[in-house]
Design goal:
180 residues, mainly beta, eight-stranded antiparallel β-barrel, 2 helices, elongated
């Protein structure tokens, strides 16, 4: 029983200290993407979103690389009938973290290049094939709460996709990550 107690305490103390020692993390995200087409009369559309995120941030420097893949969707009522809007986007970004030693809360900001494929099941809405793929940028900021090997986070940002008509979007996301 004493050995079990000793190893339990050792594990409880060492796992949080070793969490993130390699600087790798991966997780899942969920939230809302608020899209706006920069055209007269265009309405803001709030799409539900889920995704995955992965990052590499060496423990000795506050700058890292992050990648996200996200899928967002919404059913929209139009004069032509109900259509489904969707967006698949990929983000590659540089992220800067601000944290104090031993404090489990950190702030972060980042920005990067994104590729977005916006689609619909109504081909006349976006063209012959019902989708457009364009690129743009996203800047973001958030709060990270470290819980040993796991971390929860919340973030928001501002993105712009450069298509024939400019699209802007404001993501509101949260999620959970595991660090190794």
């Amino acid at each position: 029983m004493k050995k079990f107690a000793f190893f339990s305490i050792l594990l409880f103390v060492s796992v949080p200290l070793l969490a993130g020692i390699l600087g790798l993390s991966a997780g899942i995200t969920g939230g809302v993407e608020n899209w706006k087409l920069d055209a007269e009369g265009a309405e803001t559309q709030s799409l539900k979103a889920v995704g995955i995120t992965a990052s590499f941030s060496p423990p000795i420097i506050p700058v890292g690389i992050r990648g996200d893949i996200e899928y967002a969707w919404k059913d929209v009522e139009t004069p032509a009938g109900d259509i489904k809007l969707s967006d698949i986007f990929i983000l590659i970004a540089i992220q800067y973290s601000i944290s104090a030693p031993i404090v489990p809360i950190s702030l972060y900001v980042g920005g990067g290049y994104e590729i977005s494929t916006i689609g619909t099941d109504y081909s006349e809405y976006l063209g012959a094939d019902g989708s457009i793929t364009d690129s743009g940028f996203l800047v973001y900021g958030g709060l990270n709460l470290s819980l040993g090997l796991f971390a929860v986070f919340a973030e928001t940002g501002y993105g712009m996709i450069f298509a024939d008509d400019k699209y802007t979007h404001i993501p509101l996301r949260g999620g959970i990550k595991i660090s190794i």
